[in-house]
Specification:
Largest sheet: 8 strands, antiparallel, barrel
Distance between the termini: 56 Å
Radius of gyration: 20 Å
Strand order of the largest sheet: 3-4-5-7-8-9-10-11
Keywords: Signal
Pfam family, one: DUF6705
Organism: Ichthyenterobacterium magnum
Domain DUF6705: 1-200
Number of domains: 1
Protein name: DUF6705 domain-containing protein
């Protein structure tokens, strides 16, 4: 029994030691110059300003995005902080898609329909008016009925709008993915484009 307990303690210490020794780098560190097992950490808490519920409305159309921050998530051979969430889109008063779970079902473990956390800067992804050093967040957004599509969600926090807080959420196609057949839809059920969103 004593020998068995000793083996468990040694295994536990080795596991904790390996995780603790993962080199910590910023979320925008180059993957080419970062060792395997690195932890891409949100050192300046840039993701925090995007956490919460965001709403776009235009007449009877609305888009709701709910985001959470997840820390030290295992991604391939590394760890990273990321944003994760769900969304709801209503068009002409009719709910088109709703991936937001009921309160009793909320769990941010596992795959979500919005996720990621890559930093992009400058004019990348058609950001007219973006400054060269302006940092935005690139996420994926997926439609459970059209998960073969490859689509990005680009978040841009509007710095001078603090009461209420605002951001733009731009949904763009990467023209990737394999369409299952000729009749398959080629876009999300949420229209591509830019949405001005207000934090609730």
């Amino acid at each position: 029994m004593k020998k068995h307990l000793t083996h468990i303690i040694i295994a536990l210490l080795l596991t904790l030691s390996c995780k603790a020794q993962s080199p910590i780098v910023g979320i925008d560190a180059s993957r080419n110059s970062t060792p395997i097992g690195a932890y891409y950490k949100d050192l300046n808490n840039e993701f925090n300003k995007f956490v919460g519920t965001w709403v776009y409305t235009n007449g009877n159309d609305s888009l709701i995005i709910k985001l959470e921050k997840r820390e030290q998530v295992a991604v391939r051979s590394n760890y990273r902080d990321m944003l994760s969430g769900e969304y709801k889109y209503v068009e002409n008063g009719i709910e088109i898609i709703n991936t937001i779970p009921l309160p009793s079902e909320i769990s941010f473990a596992g795959n979500k329909n919005i996720g990621g956390g890559y930093i992009i800067t400058g004019q990348n992804y058609d950001c007219t008016g973006c400054l060269d050093n302006e940092r935005r967040i690139k996420l994926y957004i997926s439609d459970p009925q059209r998960d073969y599509l490859s689509v990005y969600l680009i978040l841009r926090y509007i710095v001078n709008e603090t009461n209420p807080e605002k951001m733009t959420a731009t949904i763009i196609s990467t023209h990737g993915g394999v369409i299952p057949n000729a009749d398959s839809p080629t876009s999300l059920r949420v229209p591509y484009g830019e949405y001005l969103m207000i934090k609730q």
